[in-house]
């Protein structure tokens, strides 16, 4: 005699999952560079639902405590989960009230462990993160991927920025960049990404962090030029084109 099929329990592991398991609304590249006085991060404000640019005012730059600044590409809801965990971490650190506070290196290590832990559970947070900061006069800039791969550098990028922006930065970056020169370099990279990355939008924020703290700019747009001949007729000269 066959046994009756087991009923789905409301307490099953599947019932506990109340957020996305796959990326649905995603943000594109984040770029970070060190400059003379601190660290600069840039990200646009687009949120893509699949291949549709559904949202145009998604903030992907966040201050973390007194000394750190975070930027994220990838799934927006996962970034919100990471932000919640970081807020709890900073609150717990402040509760010690011992005169010390977490610096960017400690926050970067925490993010690395968190991303790697979730990857080992086959339930990753679908983000690539850029973490910059300044503490005790030391500038710090690093990145971590959704599977926990991490490194530090003078300039980092996620997404298409790794392919399209990094070559520009390698040519033009130097250690003694002023704030104005750093912003100009980031805007050049963001303009190239706008032209070439379908998920990019012409609405961005640039954030800086120095010993004085974090400043995130109001959203603004870049001046663009779309009358290049390659844009007007992209298939000109291609095999089989008219």
Task: Explain the overall architecture.
- With 242 residues, the protein is α+β, with helices and mostly antiparallel strands.
- The protein has a single domain (34-222), classed as Glutamine Phosphoribosylpyrophosphate, subunit 1, domain 1, CATH 3.60.20.10.
- 31% of the residues lie in helices and 28% in strands.
- The chain contains seven helices and 13 strands.
- The protein has helices spanning 13-16, 76-96, 104-120, 161-164, 166-172, 179-196, 229-232, and strands at residues 25-27, 30-35, 38-44, 47-49, 52-55, 61-64, 68-75, 127-135, 138-144, 150-152, 155-157, 204-210, 213-216.
- Strands 1, 4, 5, 6, 7, 8, 9 and 10 form an eight-stranded antiparallel sheet that branches. A five-stranded antiparallel sheet has the order 11-2-3-12-13, covered by helices on one side.
- A hairpin with a 2-residue loop joins strand 2 and strand 3 (38-44).
- The longest helix has 21 residues, at 76-96.
- It is globular.
- Residues 1-11 have low confidence and may be disordered.
Task: Describe the structure concisely.
With 242 residues, the protein is an alpha+beta fold. It has seven helices and 13 strands.
List the helices and strands and how they pair.
Blueprint: H1 13-16, E1 25-27, E2 30-35, E3 38-44, E4 47-49, E5 52-55, E6 61-64, E7 68-75, H2 76-96, H3 104-120, E8 127-135, E9 138-144, E10 150-152, E11 155-157, H4 161-164, H5 166-172, H6 179-196, E12 204-210, E13 213-216, H7 229-232
Function: Non-catalytic component of the proteasome.
InterPro entries: Ntn_hydrolases_N, Proteasome_alpha, Proteasome_beta4, Proteasome_bsu_CS, Proteasome_sua/b, Proteasome_suB-type
Subcellular location: Cytoplasm; Nucleus
């Amino acid at each position: 005699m066959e046994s009756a099929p087991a009923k789905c329990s409301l307490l099953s592991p599947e019932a506990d999952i109340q957020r996305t398991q796959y990326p649905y609304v995603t943000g594109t590249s984040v770029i970070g560079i060190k400059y003379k006085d601190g660290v600069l991060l840039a990200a646009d404000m687009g949120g893509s639902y699949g291949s549709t640019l559904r949202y145009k005012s998604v903030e992907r730059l966040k201050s973390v405590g007194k000394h750190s600044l975070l930027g994220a590409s990838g799934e927006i809801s996962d970034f919100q989960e990471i932000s919640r965990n970081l807020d709890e971490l900073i609150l717990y650190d402040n509760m010690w009230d011992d005169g010390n506070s977490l610096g960017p290196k400690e926050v970067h290590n925490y993010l690395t462990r968190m991303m790697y832990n979730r990857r080992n559970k086959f339930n990753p947070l679908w983000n690539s993160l850029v973490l910059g900061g300044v503490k005790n006069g030391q500038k710090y800039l690093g990145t971590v991927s959704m599977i926990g791969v991490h490194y530090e550098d003078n300039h980092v990028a996620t997404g298409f920025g790794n392919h399209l922006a990094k070559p520009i930065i390698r040519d033009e970056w130097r250690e003694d960049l002023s704030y104005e020169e750093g912003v100009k370099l980031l805007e050049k990279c963001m303009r190239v990404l706008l032209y070439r990355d379908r998920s990019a939008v012409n609405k961005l924020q640039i954030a800086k962090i120095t010993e004085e703290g974090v400043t995130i700019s109001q959203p603004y747009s870049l001046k663009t030029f779309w009358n290049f001949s390659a844009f007007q007729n992209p298939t000109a000269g291609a095999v089989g084109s008219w």
